[in-house]
Amino acid sequence: MRSTPRSAKGGSSAPAVTEKGHSATALHLRMHPRVFAALGADLVTSDVVAVIELVKNSYDAYAHQVWVRLGTEGDQPYLEIEDDGQGMTRDVIADVWCLVATPYKVINPNIGRNGATRRVSGAKGLGRLSVGRLGERLTLLTKAAGHPCWQVEVDWTDLAAKENFNDSTVELRRRLPKTLRRNSGTLLRVHALRSRWEDEQCEELKDNLERLISPFKGTEDFRIYFTTTTDEGEENEIRISTPKFLTRPKYRIRGEADDQGNLTAQYRYRAISTHAQREREVTSSWQQIKGSRYLYGTTPNSAPRSASCGAFSFDIRAWDIAAEDTREIGDQYGLQRRRIRAAIRAHKGISVYRDGVLVLPKSEDGRDWLGLDLRRVSHVGPRVSTSQLVGYVSITADGNPGIEDTSDRERFVASRPVREFQGIIKAIIEILENERDQDRAKDAKETPMEDLLGEVSAQDAIEDVRALAQAGHSAGRAIPVVRNLHQSLTKTRKDIERRFTYYSRLATVGTVAHMLVHEIRNRTTAISQFLRLFRTESKKELRRSLAPSFKIASESVSALERLADVFRPLASRRFKQGSRTSLLEERIEACLRLQQQELQGSNIDHSPVPDSRTRVAIHPGELDAVLLNLITNSIYWLQELKSGTRMLDFSITQPDDATRVLIRASDTGPGIHSEDLERVFWPGMTRKPNGIGMGLTVASELVAAYGGRMAAQDVDTGACFVFDLPLAREQEIP
Residue 460 pLDDT > 70, yes or no? Predict the structure, then answer.
């Protein structure tokens, strides 16, 4: 009878028959030392991620401060990470640090210091592989309080050349306590770096260090510093901090999901440059969420009665990121548009923090781990992309045991808790999108011409189609993308047609300007010649009765000539924008002189023009057109003032390291209605009887042509207009 093999409990079947005379042999599992290099390359996805893992080790050592430095020793670059944590004893170095994939943090998930406790962020024991990825050699200095200082030397290249782990050793030696600058802590210096740290990679590292600590937890007990060395050998140290504007988003939803999967949240809309805002309490039950398309599709009744992912907190922030929106943020916080987009890009997507430390995503490729971009291009509606979102989700190891990340820290292990966790977050984002859509409809603005023309682009559609292609979808899935692009371009085309129809009515301005300049020049030339001749032919001093009249006539001719200079750019077909520079203070003074009669006649004072000399890269004629629009506007509304001081003021702000200058024109008139703060720049918008509503439109678009923005500000008394202009470069100064 054939014998049936017996299976070992919980294992696979063993062979029933062995060859006669031979018994089973136990073989040792072996591991080649090259595993350090292999695992380091596979599990640590980039050099930036490697540094992040090492900084997290400092956090796990209960450091309060950690310094990341890029420097050179001789002509050799190095990377250094130093902390003031608890350091390591000799036993910990031998039994924990030298043990690959140690379970030490699993066994000891919490660390205490001075009566406080911190949950450690790592548990896989693979952090040291990050060092092997970064460079060929490591010098480690560490000291625990009350213990000697130890130095460890590791040569990863030498280790990889060994035949087996038994031959793999590191050098350990005792050092003087003063070798480290602190009573306790660890210093890692990585030599012979495997890649060059260029400016772009340094910026990426700084951006990712900003994300490392959760916004749900105060960061005062853990500070990160980043230091680079200039070509002249000077150190530049900065403290890593999150840009302030990220803490004050335009759209925000934050709250909690309980351990049953029910949502309680608060949505808040707050305009960037006005006082408009709206708040709303939002709730959503697990019954509603589990029936959505994100979880159990069309069969919600078969879904679990409660979620299994565990309770968590969330704070999801969103912005509109068109050019006008980033200008608003820049004006509010004194930032360049480039820096605003870079900050949002650095923090973009939904970041998950476990016990206060970032879990994922770690690299750029993992930012859209929820599939938000694909969802946006696959469904028509008020969707947001990862590039508009900065979201934070807080989980705990104890409260969310089913949410586990993979060894490479780039995604979660697929499971029911993870699927439900992702579905709930998508439901939260959909609530944000619907609320945001309502506020955007109320907040509709007239788009500046520069931004309007910028919308005639297929770049976003190209990125959307690329996302679909990378996800393996057919060409048919791209139809909604093309349809959305068509709708957007159609709307933009209609806006442009409307604007140019309005502008076409003013096309004769150039002809009128040409005639005006021609006539003024001809007349003033003749009058000037007569005045000079009269002065020459008069043998005696002008009689007292004639002298004042002669002076007024001369000044009037000069005023007319200055007026002709103002209109000359509009009259010349050969005029090239930006071909000349201007002294800002000189032009303000000239424009005030031009309006001196109106100012005096209306009892309007103006503050002294600053005595600085600020040269800006804009043609004097165009600058005068901007300034005169603001001055004549103020004169008109100040004349409407029944009582009180009539005052006009110009101020100039120029930060030391700026490439642009900020000009502020304010008056003490009746001010601007709050609903008109944006609309005053719209073509045809005017509160003046018989006005055509083009002065501020022209002025704002002249400023926009030089990369700036003009804004009306809500102030306690009067009106205030602020705009910026580029400073002239040295080579532009005549």
Answer: no
If we measure between CA atoms, which residue out of 491, 200, 188, 503 comes closest to residue 364? Answer: 200
DSSP H or E stretch at residue 189: strand 185-193
Q: Distance (Å, rounded) from C-alpha 201 to C-alpha 6? A: 58
Task: State the burial class of residue 132 (Cβ atoms within 10 Å of its Cβ: 0-12, 13-18, 19+).
Answer: buried
d(CA 581, CA 732) in angstroms, rounded, equals 7
Interval 488-538: pLDDT, tens: 666 666 666 555 544 544 444 554 555 566 556 656 666 777 677 666 666
Angle of the 547-571 helix axis to the 509-537 helix axis, nearest 10: 150
Which CATH number is 35-239's, of 3.20.20.70, 3.30.950.10, 3.30.565.10, 3.10.580.10?
3.30.565.10
Q: Please state, in angstroms and rounded to a whole number, the distance separating the CA atoms of residues 613 and 171.
A: 64
Estimate to the nearest angstrom the gap between the alpha carbon of 237 and the chain centroid.
21
Burial class from Cβ neighbours inside 10 Å (0-12, 13-18, 19+) for residue 15 reads: exposed
Nearest-angstrom CA–CA distance, 560 and 446: 36
Domain covering 578-734 in this structure, CATH number: 3.30.565.10
Name the pTM for this structure: 0.55
Give the DSSP per-residue string, 162-177: SSSGGG---EEEEE-G
Contact 625, 639 (CB under 8 A): no
